[in-house]
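Q: I'm writing up a methods section and want to include an example of the input and output format. Could you take the sequence below and give the corresponding predicted structure tokens, formatted cleanly so I can copy it straight into the document?
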Amino acid sequence: MSGRKGYADGPDGQVHYRDAGGSGLPLLLLHQTPCHLGQFDPAFALLAAAGLRPVAVDTPGYGQSDPPRGTPTIAAYARAMLAVLDHLRLGAADVLGHHTGASTAAELAVTAPRRIRRVILNGPPLFTPEERSDYLAAIAAAPRPEQRADGGHLQAYWDRRARFTPGWTSVAAMHRGVVMMLAAEPRERDGYTAAFAHDIGVPLRAITQPALILTNTGDDLYGTSCRARDLRPDFAFVALEGGTHDIVDEQPEAWATAVVGFLG
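A: Here is the clean output for your methods example:
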């Protein structure tokens, strides 16, 4: 993954980013939970080669970004992304968010509409209030693997990620995902808490910029992406075939082609 790394001073601390630079149209890349900006490594150079200027950002509390001072919220994540735009002196940019990142992208688009030109929501988590409540309860109740001298807890993390990635086929993608999960401890679940407390339907209804709902049929949020399509039939909609939530690892060329096809 090429590009220059740096830090912006955000409202809750430093926000880490990687910027491809150049004169292309800037595109903020906002990752899913519990990953970091490395989620976009397989497609970063492809986007830059197509004439875009990808800027991948670590969500506060993930990767090398400082954690939020209080309870993590999607609104706070969006403010952190604005700090990156300010730091890079970008008056406006396009934004792509995946899963939790899609919530942040939607929030950013409506709270700072003059700063966001176009929006790509990759797997938007449009859950019902009951579903969001159930997920929040499940997160709170789920035990954490206890560290063991024989390293058995590492196997527990692998097994857990394998369970919530049905249909996975790429060992490399699974390995990267588990490494990112481990790197996020002990705040690994913050992004889930923020996302499930946030009703993406509110900003989704209010987005006025040109927008694309991007998904893949094997994604665990394929169903919520279809809900979002039904809520906003005026948005463009692209569904890649197969894959999982590791679609950027699994189909980087097809994924990047869909992104570039919408942004031109």
